[in-house]
Write a structure and sequence with these properties.
Layout: H1 13-26, H2 31-44, H3 49-58, H4 69-79, H5 85-94, H6 105-108, E1 113-114, H7 128-137, E2 142-145, H8 160-177, E3 182-190, H9 201-205, E4 209-213, H10 222-235, E5 240-241, H11 263-272, E6 276-280, H12 290-299, E7 303-306, H13 318-327, H14 341-348
Parallel strand pairs: 1-2, 2-3, 3-4, 4-5, 5-6, 6-7
Helix pairs in contact: 1-2, 1-4, 1-5, 3-4, 10-11, 11-12
Length: 350
Amino acid sequence: MIGSSESGSVLSPVAALRRIAFLLERGREDSYKVRAFRRAASALLPLADDEVRRRAEEGSLTDLPGVGASTAQVIAEAAAGQVPARLVEAERSLGGPLTADSAGETLRALLRGDLHSHSDWSDGGSPIEEMAFTAIELGHDYLVLTDHSPRLTVAHGLSAARLEKQLAVVEAINDHLAGGFTLLKGIEVDILDDGTLDQSEEMLARLDLRVASVHSKLAMEPAQMTKRMIAAVTRSPMNVLGHCTGRLVAGNRGTRAGSQFDARAVFEACAEHDVAVEINSRPERRDPPTRLLELARDIGCLFSIDSDAHAPGQLDFLVLGCARAETAGIDPDRIVNTWPQQRLLEWANR
C-alpha cells in the first residue's frame, strides 16, 4: 500500500501528505479535504528538504500557496521526524482491510493491472501522472486510462481533439517511466441509443483498449436496451462492457435501479465476440448484480475486474471486485487483467 506508515517508519512530508490523501480517497471522503492535502504536496515538491525544515521551524509554511494550517501541521511533524497525528488517525479509521477475512486477496495478488480509471481530463480528481504513480506503488504492471467520451458533457468528456492531446501526454509519461510499468491508452466510451460508440473510428483504432458503457436513458424499454447493447458488442471494437446495469446501491449520489435488458442475449453476444464483462469494484455499484454475474460465468464470458477509480486512492477498490469474483468461483484465467500486458493487448486488438 502506498507510503504506509504502519511499520512505524517515518515518511517525508510529501509522502505523508500523499498518504493521507490516498486514505481519504479510499474512504470516499469529501473531495475538498483530499484536494487540500494534494495541493500542499504539490507546493512542497519544488522545495529542498532544508527549506521545508526551516519553514517548519520558523512557522512560515502557510506562506506557501496551497498550504493551510492543518496541512502545515502535518508537514511540520513529518519534517521533525514524527509520524503526523493526522496520518495516524487516517490509518486508524481508513487504512484497514476493505473486505472481511481477507476475502479477494488471493485473486487480487494475481491481477496485473486495472482497465478502467479516470483522471482530471474528464471527471477524475487527479492528474494523469498521479494516477500512474499510485498504480505503480500498488504493484500494477499496467493501468488503462479511460476518461469519458464527448457526449458525457457533465463529466467533461473528451472530444477527438482533446483525446489526441491526451495520447501524447500518455506517451510522454511512458517515456519518462522508461519501462517496468505502462500507462495504456484507453477510453470509457458511451454506447449511444442506436448502439454506436461516442468516438470516431479513427480515434478508437489508436487506443490500446476500449471500455464501452451505457450512461444515458438507463430506463430505456428492455427490448430496445437489449438491441442497443448487442449492437455495440457485435458491431464495434469495444473490449469491455462497463458496469452493465448502471445501478447504484449506496453512496452520496443516492440509489438507482439498474437497466432492464435480456442479460442472457447480451452475455451470449459478449462470449461470442470476446468482449469481457466488467466486474465493477466501486462499492456503490457492485455491478453486475450477483445473479447476472453468475449468469455471465455460466455462459462462458470473459471478465475484467476494474476499480473505475476517479481518484488515486480508489485504485485500491480492486479487492472488492476480486471478493465477488472469488465467491462466484470465476476461473482467474477468464479475468483478462490477470493476463500479462502482451496477451492483454493481443486480445484487445485482435
